[in-house]
């Protein structure tokens, strides 16, 4: 396997992570692909990018850093479209309302908390691996993870007895979201 | 004593078996925390479901790390467009020990390069052959100068490469030349005449004619033919002087007075080569 083969194999995962990072941002899909492309270019130009697990860690770390570099300042325009398609046919199909809540919840997380949650919950990294990617200690990662989950809990209303309640009026009034089927 | 981090490890599947039982027992006796764990698990499922479609999306071209031009050419297109020689060379470019798809792409690239080179080489060879054929079979009878090249000096060796002016064809010239006598070109520079060319004529008789030009606007020709085909004494040409020598018949004519023409004729008779 050459480096290019490894990178090609990593493309779907990196795209998923990049899109999740850019959830709710205008042009998120295109920007996500740009991020992945820039990550690949960095890897190809690097003298030693590591192999296998090290390569994966390094690619995610590079993409995370690139995203931080280009991340819009607080208050910038957000939310032209949902970041991903709703998988109606999957076992985990969920309603558009909950999809919107998830997107809004991700948008409202701080960048550091979002990175921690996505690396662990979406990408399946261990806490140690996620800490390496983010260049933080494991305890700091767990702190970020706890904050993210608590914040998202309130947004998704998944706590028992509240998950099927309608979306609060403040969230329903957000005008820029639309469902991409 | 419960560590909240254990709950995160439990949700993320990272809790070791030794702690698993203790944490699960704790959750049984603590419904609010059990609900939090359940909610976090559902968060994970929601996130994975929300972005599950991304992995199924087609990869854009910009993210495929293989050279574009290699991907744009299919094997079928190559086979269809290239001659057999090029296709053979493409197959021969396959190298062993290239295990993965990227190397297969590279091999395909080598094949494209080799096929392109073979195509260019074939084109050059065909062009060269075509030019050679045209030069030999088409332009030969038309583009070669009818007379000898201008500037050919008098006194050159035997004249053997002239073209039949009457027929202006390769066949006619060859036939005319086959029966023409050979002789050197007389040098008339002593008399102020410049050699301008030689032509072969098949009618009314086979002859080779040397032309000269002098000042002011004086023309002079020497016609040489085999003796049995010549008209004695240059009959038919006003003011011409004729003579025969070694089986060849010479006729000297020109736009100059007869006395001077006679002097030139005498000069040629004494200086022209005697070989037949």
Question: Explain this structure to me?
Answer:
The complex is a heterodimer of chains A (181) and B (276). In chain A, helix 4 packs across helix 7 (138-156). Chain A is an all-alpha fold. The N and C termini of chain A lie far apart (37 Å). Chain A has helices spanning 3-21, 28-45, 53-70, 96-108, 111-122, 127-134, 138-156, 169-172. The model of chain A is unreliable at 75-93, 158-167 and 169-175 (pLDDT under 50). Chain B contains eleven helices and five strands; from the N terminus they run ααααααααααβββββα. Chain B has a five-stranded antiparallel sheet with strand order 1-2-3-5-4. In chain B, helix 1 runs parallel beside helix 3 (31-50) and helix 7 runs antiparallel to helix 8 (101-137). Chain B is rod-shaped and about 150 Å long. Residues 68-73, 81-102 and 139-168 of chain B have low confidence and may be disordered. Chain A binds chain B through residues 1-2, 4-5, 7-8, 11-13, 15-16, 19-20, 33, 36-37, 40, 44, 83-87, 90-94, 98-99, 102-103, 117-118, 120-122, 126-127, 142, 145-146, 149, 152-153, 156, 158-160, and chain B through 4-5, 8-9, 12, 14, 35-36, 38-40, 42-55, 57, 59-60, 62-66, 100-103.
């Amino acid at each position: 396997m050459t480096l290019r083969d490894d990178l090609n194999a990593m493309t779907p995962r990196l795209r998923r992570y990049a899109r999740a990072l850019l959830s709710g941002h205008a042009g998120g899909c295109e920007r996500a692909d740009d991020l992945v492309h820039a990550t690949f270019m960095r890897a190809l130009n690097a003298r030693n990018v590591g192999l296998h697990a090290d390569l994966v860690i390094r690619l995610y770390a590079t993409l995370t850093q690139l995203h931080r570099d280009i991340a819009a300042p607080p208050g910038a325009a957000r939310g032209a479209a949902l970041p991903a398609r709703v998988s109606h046919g999957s076992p985990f199909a969920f309603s558009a309302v909950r999809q919107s809540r998830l997107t809004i919840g991700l948008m409202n997380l701080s960048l550091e908390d979002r990175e921690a949650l996505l690396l662990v919950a979406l990408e399946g990294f261990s806490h140690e691996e996620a800490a390496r990617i983010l260049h933080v200690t494991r305890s700091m990662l767990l702190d970020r993870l706890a904050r993210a989950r608590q914040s998202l809990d309130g947004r998704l209303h998944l706590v028992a007895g509240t998950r099927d309640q309608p979306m609060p009026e403040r969230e329903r009034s957000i005008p820029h979201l639309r469902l991409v089927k | 004593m419960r560590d909240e981090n254990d709950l995160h490890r439990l949700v993320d599947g990272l809790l070791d078996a030794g702690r698993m039982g203790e944490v699960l027992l704790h959750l049984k006796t603590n419904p609010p925390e059990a609900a939090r764990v359940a909610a976090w698990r559902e968060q994970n499922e929601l996130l994975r479901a929300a972005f599950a479609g991304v992995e199924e999306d087609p990869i854009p071209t910009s993210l495929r790390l293989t050279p574009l031009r290699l991907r744009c050419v299919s094997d079928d297109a190559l086979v269809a467009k290239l001659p057999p020689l090029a296709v053979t060379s493409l197959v021969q470019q396959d190298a062993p020990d290239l295990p993965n798809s990227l190397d297969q792409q590279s091999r395909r690239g080598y094949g494209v390069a080799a096929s392109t080179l073979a195509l260019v080489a074939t084109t050059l060879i065909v062009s060269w052959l075509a030019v050679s054929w045209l030069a030999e079979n088409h332009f030969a009878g038309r583009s070669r100068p009818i007379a000898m090249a201008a500037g050919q000096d008098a006194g050159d060796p035997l004249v053997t490469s002239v073209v039949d002016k009457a027929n202006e064809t390769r066949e006619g010239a060859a036939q005319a030349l086959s029966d023409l006598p050979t002789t050197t070109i007389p040098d008339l520079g002593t008399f102020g005449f410049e050699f301008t060319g030689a032509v072969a004529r098949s009618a009314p008789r086979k002859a080779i004619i040397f032309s000269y030009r002098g000042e002011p606007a004086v023309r002079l020709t020497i016609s040489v033919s085999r003796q049995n085909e010549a008209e004695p004494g240059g009959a038919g040409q006003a003011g011409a002087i004729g003579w025969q020598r070694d089986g060849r018949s010479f006729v000297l004519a020109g736009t100059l007075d007869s006395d001077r023409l006679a002097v030139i004729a005498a000069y040629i008779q004494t200086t022209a080569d005697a070989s037949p």
